[in-house]
Amino acid sequence: MGIKRKVLEFREIGCYPVYVLILLLLTYLLNQLDRYAIGVTSIYIAQEMQWGDKGCLLNTSYSKAQFRNISCGIHDKTLTSHQIESICDSKVNDFGEHVCKYDYNGQGELFQILAGPAFIVVYTFSGIPLAAIGDLTNRRNLLVGCLFFWSAMTFITGFTEKYWQLLVLRFAIGIGEAGCTPFAASIIADYFPS
């Protein structure tokens, strides 16, 4: 009996609220995509900008068949970076090709700052004033503004050349993305019954 009533309530809502819900879903998916882009690309960014920890990595210019079960990972924490580099350079396949390289791995304290405090702290505390502003003005326009802002900051991140620039842009992305959840939740509450 309760399920039938809920289905009837949902049918009475109409198409426009469902359209809004789909748009908000797409916005939230972009929010998540932009948030985690740094984790997916950190190794490439670190190698290009030369920041963070170094380690023995697979040389991606070779195919998997050319590795011949060679593992580049070195887990001995007592070795110096020079020793790790030397071991890494000595790993060759049957053809005498170096299949490992000693390079920046996109990890370490600098990555932790980018993925953690530079984003999370700003994201957490920016949501409070943004939600308050949303109560006073048009939430839809604020959500669209936040979407464009964080997307623009993510786009600009692709052009950074220094670590500090990346750090500042992570702050900006955190501010922009902070507007998504409070605005979307209140818009959904307006269109759908509890």
From TrEMBL:
<dbReference type="Pfam" id="PF07690">
    <property type="entry name" value="MFS_1"/>
</dbReference>
<dbReference type="InterPro" id="IPR036259">
    <property type="entry name" value="MFS_trans_sf"/>
</dbReference>
<protein>
    <recommendedName>
        <fullName>Major facilitator superfamily (MFS) profile domain-containing protein</fullName>
    </recommendedName>
</protein>
<dbReference type="GO" id="GO:0022857">
    <property type="term" value="F:transmembrane transporter activity"/>
</dbReference>
<keyword id="KW-0472">Membrane</keyword>
<feature type="transmembrane region" description="Helical">
    <location>
        <begin position="111"/>
        <end position="134"/>
    </location>
</feature>
<dbReference type="InterPro" id="IPR011701">
    <property type="entry name" value="MFS"/>
</dbReference>
<feature type="domain" description="Major facilitator superfamily (MFS) profile">
    <location>
        <begin position="20"/>
        <end position="194"/>
    </location>
</feature>
<keyword id="KW-0813">Transport</keyword>
<comment type="similarity">
    <text>Belongs to the major facilitator superfamily. Spinster (TC 2.A.1.49) family.</text>
</comment>
<dbReference type="InterPro" id="IPR020846">
    <property type="entry name" value="MFS_dom"/>
</dbReference>
<feature type="transmembrane region" description="Helical">
    <location>
        <begin position="12"/>
        <end position="30"/>
    </location>
</feature>
<feature type="transmembrane region" description="Helical">
    <location>
        <begin position="141"/>
        <end position="159"/>
    </location>
</feature>
<dbReference type="GO" id="GO:0016020">
    <property type="term" value="C:membrane"/>
</dbReference>
<keyword id="KW-0812">Transmembrane</keyword>
<dbReference type="InterPro" id="IPR044770">
    <property type="entry name" value="MFS_spinster-like"/>
</dbReference>
<keyword id="KW-1133">Transmembrane helix</keyword>
